Amino acid sequence: MSAPVSDVTPSAPPAAAGQQAALVGSESHWALMRRHFQRHRLAVASLYFLAVLYALAVFAEFFAPYTREWRNLPHAYCPPQLPRFSFTHGLHVLGMKRLIDPVTLRKIYLEDPATVVPLGFFVRGEPYRLWGFLLWDRHFIGVKNPAPAADGVPPTFLFLGADKYGQDTFSRLIYGARISLSVGLVAIIITFGLGVTIGGISGYMGGGIDNVIQRLIEIINSFPQLPFWLALGAVLPPDWSPLTTYFAITIVLSLIGWTGLARVVRGKILSLREEDYAMAARLLGASHTRILFRHLLPGFTSHIIVVLTMSVPSMILGETSLSFLGLGLRPPIVSWGVMLQDCMSIQTMANYPWLLMPGVLIVLTVLCFNFLGDGLRDAADPYATL
Description:
alpha+beta, elongated
C-alpha cells in the first residue's frame, strides 16, 4: 500500500527563507523602515501629494498666475475657466461675458466663444519679488501676450474662479498654502522641543518631578480643545502686525500640542533608562543630559517622527479654525482659514461653490498627513511583520 501523497507545497524553500533572513539581518533599521514604507501605497502617494503642495507653497509667487494684491472687480464672482486645447488656438480658455439679471441684479457670466484667451507657460505677468528678494515677472502659467479687450478690461485666466473682490482663487490658494502649511511645521518644531525635553525629564528623573509634570499635562488635556484655542486667540491684540500674529498663533498651537509627544517620550524613557547601555554610561560618569539626549532618545527616533507627523493635521486645523472665526490670522494675510471666511453665508456657498476650494484642500491635506502617519507607524517597527 503506497503512502498518500501530500499536495501541500511549502511557502518558501528553507534556503530561500535563510537568504531572506540573512538579507534582513544585514540591512540597517532605516533601510528596513524605507522598504516597509514603500509597501504602503497610500502613504507613498500622500507623501508625493504633500511634496507638491509644499513645493507650490515655497515658490508661490512663481506658480501663482497673479500676485497676492491683484484684483479685477469687473470679474467679481466669476466662475472657473477650465483650460482647453485645440490645434487652432493651442492651450486657451474662453472669455467670459458678464450680464446683469434685471430682476435679482445678480451677475451672470456666460462663455463667449468669440473671445479666445491664449495661455502659455513661463509667461510674463505681474512683477513680484520671489521670497521678498528676487524681482521677477515670470509665472508658471498665465495669459500669453495679454491685450486689452474692446471694453478696456484685460483678458484673465481664473482657473478656480474669483471671489467677491475679483481676486483669483487659485492664486490665493497657493499663497494660502504657504501660511497654513508652514504654521503646522513651525508649531511642530516648537512642540518637538517642548515635548521631548519635558517628557524626557519626566521619564528620566521620575519621583516628584514626574508627578508634577504629569499632573500639569492632565490639567492641560482637561480643557476642551476648541474653546481653549478660541480663548487664547481672543487674547491676541487686533492691532498686531501680520507677522507678529503669525508667530503668536504658532506659539498658541504649540503650547497645547506638546502634551501627547511628552507622554510618548516619558513612556519610552521609563522602559529604556534601566537598560544595560544606559547603566554603563551612568557608571562611566556621563551626565544626565548626555545619557538622556545622546543614548536614550535616539533609540526611538522613528516613533517620535510618527507622533510628530500625525500631529501636523491638528495644527493646521487649529489655525484654520481660529482664522475662520476671525480670532487668528486676518487679512491682508492669505491663509486657507482666512479664505473660508467668504463661505459663512449659505447663499454664497450655493451660488459660488468654488469658494469652498480651501476646505477641499484642507480635507485632502489632513487625510494625506494621516495616511503618511499610518505608513510611518507601520514602518517604525519593521521587525513586527517579518
